[in-house]
Amino acid sequence: MRELDFDEIVTVLETGHTVELGVVGATGVILGKSQGADERIYAVLIGDETIMLPESVLVPTGRYIDPNEVYGGESIRVQAERYPEEGAESHEVSPATCRRDLTRYFNERSIWEGCVSSRGSRLEELRAQAEVGNVDAMLELAETSEIADQGRWLLRAAQAGSEQGRGKLAQFRPNLEEAAQRGDSASQGVLGGILLAWDENPSEAAMWFAKSAESGNNEARRSLGYLHVEGIGVDQDLAKAESLFLAAAREGDAIAAHNLGVFYVEETDSSRDSLEGIGWLRVAAEAGIDEAAAKLGDVLSGMDRDEEALYWYERAGDLGNTGAMMAAGCWHRDGTGTEENRIVAVKWFLRMLEFHNFEGVHEIFQLAPRMTDSEIREGGRLADRQAEAEKIIQMCNSGAGHGSTAGP
Q: Per the domain annotation, does 269 fall within a domain?
């Protein structure tokens, strides 16, 4: 694992030690570091506490706070003697750390706001549009990107059905292949992705993923790991897959963290691995991977940890996972993991419409006879789907009917 930087934002994994400290899944900032006997120890600011944690429980997010924005006032330095490791040496602290201002920064605003970013607002806007399927944005991003990212966006556009994307991908591909042959790791990984997803040639894809993974490319590591799990284009090798997922996840790759979490809870039987799987799923979910949050809900539900499961279903729903929205709606309807709340159930069922999923509407029609008009309207307001809520009320009153008042 690379040495973490001052001011870098990290997430804490679930281990017996971090459970005891009460910091599982917490997000913090690196303030100090020390070389211990076995591994590096970091001083991590979590809330208003500075906690000493070994590198093995910390996962980098790839994000940093902006010190120019949040540092100020009287500096509070981490003292070397606070490190727990015997024989620790080479203590270092961030040169201008102010706990008071950092605490305010975390408590009053989103942790992602104010982070250092090299992207301009136009590129961020294009990326956001591309991520929700805007092909024109993908093509424009391809024109302004380095060679590997250019290949990624052209592949995305081609997969979305764009004739222009397919044509540009074919024209661009020799340039990508040349860069891959020269040893450019990112280009090797993207070429592997094209061979797998577009050419349906997993054997050759695996060869390029392996070349890229040898150079430390995390996208290639997790892609090759997936092939080894499934035995596609390569021999099935679960130990190799675990090693690849772990290497990428340790470097902060959120998708690899998701893959590793799923691997531990599905491909192994030990309770220790299940605990590690939950920890990695949490890391991925905190990084915004909706499938990880939904999977975490499923795993915790199977362990009868219903309140925690509902929390992660709702987190996944907020990230756009319609399956998790359905689960959250049903659980609020039935009082699983929480008190029964039909209004909140309607909210989640209606939110599924944002993603053109109408399964939740059917659930509302089943629920409507036990609700008042005002309750359905409130659910619509919470989902910002007032028009749809009114339409459902009209349809029920004209046919199926639920009445202006309703019993339990």
A: no
Q: What is the pTM of this model?
A: 0.70
Tokens of 282: 């949490």
From CA 211, how far away is CA 224, in angstroms rounded? Answer: 10
Dist. CA 290–CA 294, nearest whole Å: 6
How does DSSP classify residue 399?
I
Same domain? For 126 and 80 the reply is no
CA pair distance 341, 362, nearest whole angstrom: 18
DSSP letter at 30 equals E
Say how far apart CA 301 and CA 282 lie, in whole Å. Answer: 14
Q: Which residue has the higher pLDDT, 398 or 223?
A: 223
**Same domain as 148, residue 99:** no
Mean pLDDT of the chain: 83
**CB-based contact 290:319 (threshold 8 Å):** yes
| 385: nearest Cα among 405, 403, 361 | 361
Note the pLDDT tens digit of each residue in 110-135: 333 333 333 345 677 888 888 878 99
Phi, psi of 109 (to 5 degrees): -150, 165
Handedness of CA 7, 13, 18, 19 (dihedral sign): positive
CB atoms within 10 A of CB 80: 14
Please tell me the distance from the alpha carbon of residue 303 to that of residue 274, in angstroms, as a whole number. 11
**Is 274 a domain residue?**
no
Q: Which of 108, 135, 152 is the last residue of a domain?
A: 108
Query: Is residue 103 located within the same domain as residue 49?
Result: yes
Same domain, 97 and 16: yes
More confident residue, 77 or 139: 139
- Tell me the residue range of the domain where 73 lies: 8-108
User: Which pLDDT score is estimated for 128?
Assistant: 82
Asked which of 74, 108, 142 is the last residue of a domain, the reply is: 108
Closest CA to 310 of 268, 264, 341: 341
The structural domain count of the chain equals 3
